[in-house]
Amino acid sequence: IRTFEDHGGAVNAVAVFPDRRRMITGSDDRTLRLWGLETGVVLKKMEGHSREVSALAVSRDGQMIASSDRGGELIAWHGETGESLIQPIKAHSEGINTVDFSLDGTVVVTGSGDGMAKFWCTKPWQMQGEPIDCGYVYCVRYSPSGELLAIATSRNIQIYNPGTRERVACFKGHTKRNWSLAWTPDGTRLLSGGDMDDATIREWDSSTWQQAGHPWKGHNDAIGAIAIDPTDTLVASASSDMQVRLWRLSDRQNIGIFKHSFSVYSVRFSVDGGHILSGGYNNKISEWAVP
User: Fold this and answer.
1) CB 3.0-4.6 Å disulfide test: which of 74, 112, 218, 235 passes with 91?
2) Could you report the per-residue pLDDT of 42-94, keeping only the tens digit for each?
3) pLDDT per residue over 1-31, tens digit each?
4) Calpha distance 184→175 (Å, rounded)
5) Cα-based distances in Å from 172 to 147, 154, 159, 190, 278
6) pTM
7) Cα 271 to chain center, whole Å?
8) Residue 275 resides in a domain
9) Are 100 and 141 in contact (CB under 8 A)?
10) What is the CATH number of the domain that holds 228?
11) What is the side-by-side strand order in the sheet with 31-36?
């Protein structure tokens, strides 16, 4: 439909606000940008990171943004104004690959190449408890109920009780590295994306942690992001093979391909599920109509 162009580097992360009016993006140009979805205009250029922005998340109520960078720093921002709430926190000794908010917005979890997942109280932005030593972390995602935390690592997929830090499940996942995760809205399934050696999506039953059905095949390079639409019927996956693929969750069928001319690192559905927003190596966000 259109593109959002203003970043000076690859777009590594994108999120949509619950108000349906705005989008936030993070880039290799070390900035975040707050966009108006109707106008396509940049509402705020957010500066503060000293390295490439690697990941971001928006709290469920839209009042707070957390972003991370390749230098291991974490910054919190006001969800409405885009103003920074804190000075950058040196959260990890290596780059942070992933961030996510707890259901109530009181905790942010970060995962890094230093092998740790850490929990941060959003007031007063201090580390909560001991970190989880889980190996090289590519992705962390709270379940929709907030009762579980899934961690995708270079070796396996680990499931924790985030309150007690008790590990409740651990399974191999993909052949080598597990790159991306997404929970279905009802929490009964966890989807995972693999690297270039196993460029499939796999579906896991959260009651048994056994794989459900066969791997979803179609991509031929690493799957860096997975998104599920609000109706729990469609899945979008972004890959370094320069494609976003659209899947039907009920039968795991690929029903659409959005071809890019660049590697795609991030993907999200709009709040109403009618559009897909994807970004990557060409410094842009592309907006697509869901057929």
Assistant:
1) 74
2) 999 999 999 999 999 999 999 999 999 999 999 999 999 999 999 999 999 99
3) 999 999 999 999 999 999 999 999 999 999 9
4) 23
5) 22, 10, 12, 14, 28
6) 0.96
7) 15
8) no
9) yes
10) 2.130.10.10
11) 11-16, 22-27, 31-36, 42-47
User: What single letter denotes the amino acid at residue 186?
Assistant: D
Classify residue 2: in a domain, yes or no.
no
Residue 252 CB contacts under 8 Å (≥ 6 apart), including other chains: 203, 213, 214, 216
The pair of three-digit structure tokens given for residue 51, joined into one six-digit string? 């390295």
Residues of the chain with pLDDT under 70: none
Give the angle subtended at the CA of 39 by the CAs of 59 and 269, to the nearest 5°. Answer: 45
CB 76 within 8 A of CB 110: no
Q: Which domain holds residue 127?
A: 49-263
Looking at the structure of the chain, the number of domains it has is 1
d(CA 181, CA 187): 12
- In the three-class reduction of DSSP (H, G, I as helix; E, B as strand; rest coil), residue 196 is classed as helix
